[in-house]
Amino acid sequence: MMETVKPLDVVTSGKGKLRRAFVKVINIKKLTGVVPEGDKVDKDLVKNAANLSESFDKLEEEYEKRLAMEALLAKLFATVSSIKSAYAQLQYAQSPYDPAGIQRADGLVVSELKTLSELKQSFLKKEFDAYPDRTLALAEIQELRSLLKTYEITGKKMECQLKLKDSEIIFLKEKFQESLSQNKSMEKRLLNQSGPLDRNSPSHFVTYLHHTVKSIRGFVKVMIEQMRFAGWDVVTAADSIQSGVLYYKQDHTCFAFEHFVCKVMFEAFHLPYFSTESSSSKSSREMFFERFSELRSVKAREYITSRPKSRFSRFCRGKYLQLVHPRMELAFFGHNQVSTAGEFPETSFCAAFLEMARRVWLLHCLAFSFDPEEASIFRVSEGSRFSEVYMRSVSEESLLLSESEPRVAFTVVPGFRIGKTSIQCEVYLSRSKSTPCGSDKDP
């Protein structure tokens, strides 16, 4: 917007003979239309003053036209904002359906459209506002009111959407809890089935292996959360387990912890009771199945409390000390209750560990109850070529993003063989930071 031209009376406040004469000539000319002859003023100065006065008149006229046009445009934009606000009200009144609100909003839209048409005619006929300054202020107020109304309606819509999303969340939570209850019920029926279990069927072993891996991942999740709560660097800890692995996502470091837990928990799995003290004779297969049937319907903590010197109790304490170093236990809980007293405290961490240990023990007993040959365990070495026959990738990204033939970085969950049946191991595929892929030997 062009600045307003200063009135001529402001010039009289200046100093100097030339300025005083200039103002005098202009004022007299405006009053009489004649330049005084008696004044001793230079004729060139009088002529220039007259031209300057005429230029000021033109500038003032141009300024007034520009101001009137700006007022028209301001009113135009304010009217458009009012139309948008009225249309938003119309949409809001449609859901939920409000007949009175729809009628009011429709009347506002029609009224503002008429105003828009009138502005168009005023522009075509060059009929500008006589008070542009006032129109500018009123247009700004109108536009701000329209914007405020639009924001209010948007806020109401968002509140409705939020309530709808809250209802959806509550519904999904209920469905999730229902699904969890159904899964637990099905699992309980499977674990506590009254009928005879065909222990020689690989499908039953696969089912129990699935539950075992699920419990391992549950424990790993709790362990990582506990490490973060204690202020440990999870990435550094994962690199100390499996160094030089390029992960496709940062969250994939959890597979390194799963690898470590599985390695500890399944160590000596091929030995009866995870020990060289017993032999797996043909007559002992029934005993392994009895141990399986005995423990599958009992909670691990209850079993350990009632039989603290049993093989399973010693297995739990031994595996815990292999997984959780005394310094780690002290950092997590502030004490070494398991490593010193051999007692598992009532914590979510120990509860997750005991459930995992129970699952591994059950799987072990079931593996040694097979006739004529117990299940065996296998892993694949780092750098091995990926084979869908023996392996399954724990991450789809590693298969999709591999530049060439994918290779094994490490085994996450070991595989099993039951007679001629092979159960795939789970592996993480990546390229080492330091060395290229190694052996091409298949498992």
Automatic annotation (TrEMBL):
Transmembrane segments: none annotated. Pfam families: DUF641, GIL1_IRKI_C. InterPro entries: DUF641_pln, GIL1-like, GIL1_IRKI_C. Residues 65-189 form the DUF641 domain. Signal peptide: none annotated. Residues 377-428 form the GIL1/IRKI C-terminal domain. GO terms for biological process: negative gravitropism; response to red or far red light. PANTHER family: PROTEIN GRAVITROPIC IN THE LIGHT 1. This is Protein GRAVITROPIC IN THE LIGHT 1 isoform X1. The gene is LOC108856184.
